Amino acid sequence: MTNSSSKSAPQSSFVPLSPNERPQQRLNLVQSLGPRPEGFSGHVCWIDGPPQKPPLRSPRNVERVCSVEWAWSPTHDRLDSYYINEKPNYWALWKHELDDGSSPWRWTWRLYAYAPKVPNEDVSTIVAYMLFDAWTDEARAVGLDHYHWINETGILDTETVQAIGRAVWGNVDYE
Fold first, then answer.
1. 78 CA to centre of own chain
2. What are the DSSP calls for 49-86, one per residue?
3. Residue 62: predicted pLDDT
C-alpha cells in the first residue's frame, strides 16, 4: 500500500437500513483460502496484546478490507468494518464498529490484529490470514458464529471473504 492509494479514515461505515440497501445477493465462485504465507505470524490484540510500538491514536491512512454483519435478531446484531493500515514494521488490521452503548451512538476504531511485514507477500494475502486468525480465535474463545452477510468489499473480494468464513467455521472446534 502506497501513499497514493491510501485514504483518510472514514468517520462512519455503511449500514444498510432498508431491504433495498442490502448488498446484492448473487452466486459466487467457490474458492479456497490458499496457502499461509511462509514466515507469517499474525497476532490478535485481545489475546496477544498490542504490538511492540502500538499506534497512539486511530488510523489516518487506511484501505477498506471488507464489512460483514451478523444479524441474530432485530435488537441483537454486530456490524464490523475492517481496514488495513501500513506501519513501518507491521500491518495493522482495524475494526471500525458502532458503539451503541454511548449516547448518541458513535463509530469507534479498535486495533483488532497485526502482523509483522513478510517480504514479497501481497497485502491481500496477509490481510486474509489476519482476518482468518482473528475470527478463528474469537470463534473458539466466545463462540462467534459465521457472519450472515457481506456488506462491502475492498482489498478482499466476496469470494475471498467467503473462503475465509468457510475455513474458519468449517474447522472450529468449540471448547
1. 13
2. -S-SS--SSS-SEEEEEEEEEEEEETTEEEEEEEEEEE
3. 94
Cα separation of 172 and 143, whole Å? 9
Question: 25 pLDDT band (50/70/90 cuts)?
Answer: low
Q: Give 125-154 pLDDT, tens digit per residue.
A: 999 999 999 999 999 999 999 999 898 999
Q: Helix, strand, coil proportions of the chain in percent (round to 5)?
A: 20, 30, 45
Amino acid at 175: E
Whether the pLDDT of residue 18 is over 80: the answer is no
Is 107 in contact with 99 (CB distance < 8 Å)?
yes
Domain residue ranges of the chain, discontinuous segments joined by +: 39-169
Cβ neighbours of residue 34 closer than 8 Å, sequence gap 6 or more: 125, 128, 163
2's CB contacts (< 8 A; 6+ apart) are: none
The set of cell numbers assigned to 34 is 490458499
